[in-house]
Amino acid sequence: MNKSSKIPDQVETITIVKYKHPKTVTRPVDAYLGLLKNWDDQELSVIRRYKALLLDQEDKVIAKLSFPKEFQFLKKTIKSIMSDLFYVAKTNGASKIIIGQNSLKDKIIPSEEEQRLAIIIKNAGQEENIPVADQIIFTGSMYYSFKKNGL
Fold first, then answer.
1. Does the pLDDT at position 110 exceed 80?
2. Which DSSP string corresponds to 40-70?
3. Which of 122, 1, 117, 124 is nearest to 64 (CA)?
């Protein structure tokens, strides 16, 4: 079931796809495959997109969030973006989140800026009591897991 959630005081809409038969995410590859599923192949290497998997206490995916195409981290402050993300996570019963972003250049090793952003996102999750279980950068054929690589 697809449904969009309008977040108070913002223009962007986060699309929420709820899972009727949730799959368990126990390894980074499970998260990678969950994030990649239903991704438009023509957009994968052309338009940077951010998605998130919402997990319950048993590590089952209860929903996938997609930010709109025009959504850019530079349009809003990181604090505002994280507020939106964790608001949606809480209102949908998530106990943890996995963040994903596609790579536009088949480069999955995070830059210094992406590493700094990962720390900000992880800290925001701790403050909101919804841990960020992993952050993944990926292409159609490979991925980088911050968790697997100790970041």
1. yes
2. -HHHHTTS--EEEEEE-TTSBEEEEEE--TT
3. 1
